[in-house]
Protein 1
Amino acid sequence: MLDNELNNLRQTALPAIKVADAAALEELRVALMGKSGSVTALLKSLGGMEAEARKAAGAEINLLKTEITEALTARRTLLDAAALEAKLAAERLDVTQPPRPDPTGAIHPLSRTTEEIAAIFSAMGFSIKDGPDIENDWNNFSALNIPEHHPARAMMDTFYLNATFGNRPAVLRTHTSPVQIRTMLNQTPPIRIIVPGRTFRSDHDATHSPMFHQCEGLVIGEGITLGHLKGCLIDFLSAFFEIPNLPVRLRSSYFPFTEPSMEVDIGWNRKTGEIGGGTDWLEIGGSGMVHPNVLANCGIDPRKYQGFAFGVGLERITMLKHGMPDLRPFYESDIRWLRHYGTSPLTPASLHEGL
Ligand code: PHE
């Protein structure tokens, strides 16, 4: 009777253990060895036996118990090892694999130019500011010494909005210069900032878009001179175009918010498009010494502080640097153009040493 039971158990339990997965194995262990498991029940039945019979049966049952325990342990070890193998295979990192050959995106040339400018000016101790695309006419014009009805407002024919901003008529900013005002109102000198950003004018042809980008620069401190302005522009432009000794010319001009005012030209060859060579000049921005009225409008004492400002057209310098003939594709999202002129996101802007 007992022998039968032992045999049955041995014949069903051992093969079942051999093929069980982790969950089934645990179920089997409980069913056999748990508190109300079948092996435990057999052991308990020993209590009701005669001494002789108990001795013989005890040996048998314990033998089976050992066989089952060993089978359970062996199976558990095997399953654990297999699980570890699977985990290691799944988490394997092949450090010898080459990077993905074709990153799915490219950095837009304008973003790239912005990153490069930021890298160059950071190294010169400038911080980067931004301001809203929708301005009020005080920040965009009046505070910059362009009074209402002044013809200079027409120079930057703009989009007025049917709204007010800070109790003043709202305009799409015509240049990044209003961020000069915002910064000088909130910061005390010394100030050294650049402001890359979007600007708007009602202009549209092959080289003008109603929406375009500029980068403003502003330095305010004690004893700042036109020499500093010129040195700063020369350093920036030669780093950006990667041409040492790039010819830079400051040409006398007029802006209401600077005095004296100068257009910034770089040397190039009109025929070949080569930058830095030839005898032609190309305008890439405006500049000048910040007008005392502008400083005073922002609560900065013009007798104590001086400064310079400049603004360059980002599309213009990007087109020049990369030999792009037309401005319009910048905003057309043509994937072929982006692939051609875009740069890999895996290559950071590192024009300037140490960045
Ligand atoms: N804001 C001027 C423009 O858009 C450029 C400029 C900036 C000129 C700073 C002088 C100083 O035309």
Note: The pocket of phenylalanine is lined by residues 175, 177, 216, 255, 258, 286-288, 309-311 (CB under 6 Å).
Protein 2
Amino acid sequence: MQYINRLVLATLASLILSGCFPSNDLGRKEYLLQGNTMGTTYNIKVVGENLDSGKLQQGIDEKLKQLNQEMSTYIADSELSKFNRSTSLEPVKVSTGLARVVKEAMRLGELSNGALDVTVGPLVNLWGFGPEYRPETVPSDELLSTTKASIGLDKLTFENGLLAKKIPGLYVDLSTIAKGYGVDLIAEFIETHGINNYLVEIGGEMRLKGFKHTGELWHVAIEKPLSTERAIHQIIVPKDNAVATSGDYRIYFEADGQRFSHIIDPKTGKPINHKLVSVTVIHPSSMTADGLSTAMMVMGEEKALAFAEKNDLAVYIIVKTEHGFVEQSTVKFMQYLK
Ligand code: ADP
Ligand code: MG
């Protein structure tokens, strides 16, 4: 059986590679800005008249560079890497960006009853998905339980802009919401330039506003969870919102015929292992959508749907069954289905 290896959100027009779309009757143009960040790519479409897109992109790249310098665990001298390396329990003042992401991570951690836990880093590394090394083997139970002792959001405090560890070995990994935060940051930056029609995408996390240059609403395609073809599974019209998808099959390794996901259940200390193929969330904030999609991926289908209904979230899930892929959405999501 061929495993699914990819499910990305893509705009229907994403295959068009030119930098600028022809103007319509209204004189508006669609400008396409592309680049690399956070180990992935970004694709941004802005609609406007006579925009200096080169200058705009320069500003975007500066914002993204700053973001990486604040919270990338792949950059040894980033603000977060320095915090992680330090064994001091003294509270430290953190940048506005890092503060914003840490605060939301802690809020979502609590809301999801620990399913989203940004201190899970040592376990991520243990299973070989972090910046350190890739063992491609299953860790022993002993190593697992000693590592588990060093994780937990209760070992991290953030008060009055000061971040502190309660144990020297605490490690914070924000990679699960950093891309979403990047999308929010860029969307806000674009809006400060008076642009209110745009699409911002970083590594599959997306936020949209307004209309395309043609005057139509932005459409987003959720691809079929198949590795053999790139076909559309569902078209959604998210309006002025962000869309995030979490899937357990994009990054994984196999050992003894079992597949191990890069998403860890903090309760067991092990990679998740259930029939939930993907979780898509529509929410005004990309960071929140990003974190919630991963949290619900940890929960599994039943708990995820109950959580979504309880918190009045727009959620769409794909579950793998004996009869193929089955999708389910919450009532709140249905308004976005095309
Ligand atoms: P997805 O797009 O599948 O949600 P992300 O890249 O957003 O994946 O998040 C997965 C990353 O988050 C992992 O690579 C790991 O670094 C980290 N992670 C894994 N499990 C958890 C968890 N339970 N809580 C928070 N972060 C996690
Ligand atoms: Mg995520």
Note: The first strand starts at residue 9 and ends at 11.
